[in-house]
Amino acid sequence: MSHFVRQFGATVALIVAFTQVAHAQEREEKTPLGKKMSAMNTAFKAIGRQIEDPSKNASTLAQLDIIETNAKAALTLEPEKKAKVPAAEQAKFVADYQAGMKEFLVTVEKLRAAVKAGKNTEALAIIDAMKDQQRDSHKAFRIKKAGQPPA
Length: 151
Ligand code: HEM
Prior knowledge:
Four Helix Bundle (Hemerythrin (Met), subunit A)
């Protein structure tokens, strides 16, 4: 084997090893709240793909149930970022987080009503509002980690 081929093989093996470690860390690092969020994320993406198709409304309502269940569970959990906030501000931080989640749940119910009524165009606008809530809430309550997308 030429020197080049051996060197190349070793580099590929290293990259594979690092990727596996990175993935393992990703799995381990998910907080209980992060797990609820991931479940919301999968359901929210599915809704985004099909909201313009009224024939999928029953499925959209099922995805909304998943979002509601996980958002309610998230209300009982606290963001990781709380520990980074000065002790005197932690109670307000958690109260603000809970208020944000309750506000989000109100929007979820608005979306449910629009889908039930077959108002898919209106539903699309509500989804945009939910994306805004997601972005603003993440800015306020989520620890910004390296390599993480902004929202
Ligand atoms: C459409 C709505 C939302 C979606 C799709 C969403 C999605 C996500 C995702 C994918 C993560 C990363 C999970 C991980 O892999 O660790 C996350 C984290 C987080 N989200 Fe959301 N999110 C939404 C709304 C919200 C709202 C409304 C709040 C608060 C009021 C919130 C607070 C947080 C917090 C605090 C984290 C970090 C987890 C922790 O601190 O343990 N999210 N979210």
